[in-house]
Here is the input.
Amino acid sequence: MLKKLKKLGISFLTSLMVVTGIGQGFIKADQTLPQLDLEAKSAIAVDAKTGQIIYAKDDKQTYPVASMSKLLTAYILLQAIHEGKITWKTKVTPTATEVDISNNTELTNVPLQEGHSYTIRQLYQAMLVGSANAATMLIGNAISGTQTKFIDKMRETAKSLRITDAKIYSANGLTAKYLGNEIYPNTDENAENEFSVRDMAIISQKLIKEYPEILETTKLTKIDFNDNGEITTVNNTNELLQDDSNLGIDGLKTGTSDAAGYCFASTTNKDGHRIITILAGAKDNDARFDQTKNLLNYIYNNYDYLAISTDRALRQNVKVKYGKQGSVPATIGNNLSLWVPKNTKEKALQIKLIPKSSTIEAPIKQGEVVGEYQISVAGNLGFIDGSNNLKTKALSDNNVEGINIFIKWWQVLTEVI
Here is the structure.
């Protein structure tokens, strides 16, 4: 299983680095990870903090994802609450169509009653814990006024997250035929929301980073939905919350439909390191949870979490012009981390220092930004934002005084000549 956080001693790398201009350090590695072919159409595992992709299977292909769509609705809702556009105590009344949907026994729901009002907090909990479909539509109405306007909002939000391949027709992921007269205009009745597992990882990461309080709800094994004194107990559809495998799952959302199969977005925080996994198209309910456990155990058995801390900082040199010294060591601006295969024969890092300009002139103060470090591991799968490495500011490790003004003039003059 995953070892406790490893502190990486960077000093041994220094001799391997080019220390002028753009410095690079690289340790050759021989990676022979065992293969893992999950029984699902597509899957991805990412680090929740950095977005590093640890495992991927057909991660860019869009598929129906059913109720995992509710994570995008949750993101929009939490954004609206934090911006003060809506509150947890806001009350909403369902339409006749939403009442009918809530009482359709083919679908997951909490029963709603015509003429009754429900708080946003009630609906939010019902959506995330019980995957309540009509409650999710009601949240969309509260934010945008109608389902059509809320779907437009979902599409705009997806694009703002740089998700451009998704197909979005409903707030809850239902097949369009179940939406009655609240179907999105000109939508085929068999249409369903489609996302890639990478898309869902982006949404999940944004949720956890910006609104970590969501985990206080997604970890609940059940809730009591109170409708004017009539209590409906709702069990969480995420069965790994009560699993005995010690994986510590505390979210996020299941999804099921004929077209989507069995889907699952999970997250766990083990030894202080949070991972997000997304599966789409598992064959049955047990499979989506078993395959998620297989994926997490694969990571814990085959990877180490490598921490690069500022107290053992990188020190590549940046050239300085018109200074009393010709270069200055640059340190990393903040702690970084990467998942690294355990069975590499040597730990593998690729480290590149890019100065902020071709000419950095003195004086320079200690801690001043002098460039950017880019750090990756050999053979890495990249990051869900499309980049191939971690980035952090490169800071001057000490002060560099400028040379005497007359000497500087002379150097300028000789350069011109």
Summary: The radius of gyration is 26 Å. The longest helix spans residues 285-302.
